[in-house]
Amino acid sequence: MKKNVALSIAAVTSGVAMAKPIINEVTTPQEIGQISEFFQEKGNRVQIQFPLPQSTFAWQNMSRFFPTAQISRDGQVYEFPYALNDEISNITAKVHGRNLSLDEHLDHYPVDGFLVVKKGEIVFERYNTMRKTDKHNWFSNGKITSGIELANLVATGKVDPQAPVSKYIPELKGSDWDTVTVYDTANMATGLNASEHDEPNDDSRTNPDQPWFKWAATIGLFDNEAINHEMPLDVIAQMHRRAPAGEKFEYNSINTFVVSRIVENVMNQPMNEVVSQHMWQYMGANNDGFVAVSPHGGYSLHFFSMNSTLEDMAKYGMMLTPSAPKLAGHKGVDPEVIKLIQNSGNPNAYDKGFVGQKLSRSFYDDSGIRNAFQFDAIFEDGDLFKSGVGGQGLYISPSKDLVVAFFSSGDGNNQEESYARQIAKYFDK
């Protein structure tokens, strides 16, 4: 790849405070062609999950690299009013042993955009490498779209959380999924192998011989000639039990894929339509969203590839706050569904796996954290957080009527979530 492509984007991943270029304004058509060719080269598709210079463009333009399904908006756009609070920029958090203010952090780390919404009003915003009209990949933040929909089905009695997964996905009958409950799957605690970070050899996302990688290849995420014509559920059916369920938070996008299929089978609608009809059309969205679709099976891949503007991700979070009716006159997510999520999970399982341990370091002032229904952190005060690879995040506080949303192009260790938690505590004062 020519040096000028990397140089035009290099400031995004630099640790030096400088004016950061707007990715979609500085990337030329020639550079876009080179980036596209890079990801088309054999073995390179797997690299799109990592913060390469090429990925900084791809993460803001995922529809150039994957087929997509639309998540349609409707109704009047909710225009955020502003009530800017200068104190927020001075809130500090400890990141890698250093105490920095939010503004200092945003100067020095590869954060694309950071937004704080309180009572339906923007109280802080910062765009570094993207415009407010640009769409960005949520990565694993998108997992909560499936988790919230499943929680709604549980709360309304349409899904039995203690039933085996195979009750709702017939293709998994006769496999070890007969022994896994819907609840443990929603909470990333199946006890099955093929996890994303918690295998004995921590190379699930890069090693073509790993079962997790093989599953990802069946949905078109990665290249793997050994897969032949296996379908995703064929590979998932080969997973086996290695530990009791419910005892360890083992992060696994396969669980989200399974949750999505449960929702689809019960609703008899594709996930992108479910999200559109239950949330996106009622939240005063600025734009349609989109989600990547697998070439085999046509599955919408919410575990990895929701895409929207930063404001629309914040509006999605607002649907779980008291300000939801401001968006488009809709009551938002039912309070009973929110309570179900807040009261689920097992704090004793939390820090026994990779992601729980990582986030425990980010939330250094908290204890008793749990995960449930695809949220990575549920705090004792009922606040909710979901993270995504590369440093994406959505923090929701129903009690404080607060949402913090951010997109990054880093390695996932920036700890913007530490600032989100400290901002929430600031509003406790």
Automatic annotation (TrEMBL):
Gene3D superfamilies: DD-peptidase/beta-lactamase superfamily. Residues 1-19 form the signal peptide. Pfam families: Beta-lactamase. Keywords: Signal. Residues 109-422 form the Beta-lactamase-related domain. The keyword Cell membrane does not apply. This is Beta-lactamase-related domain-containing protein. It comes from Vibrio comitans NBRC 102076.
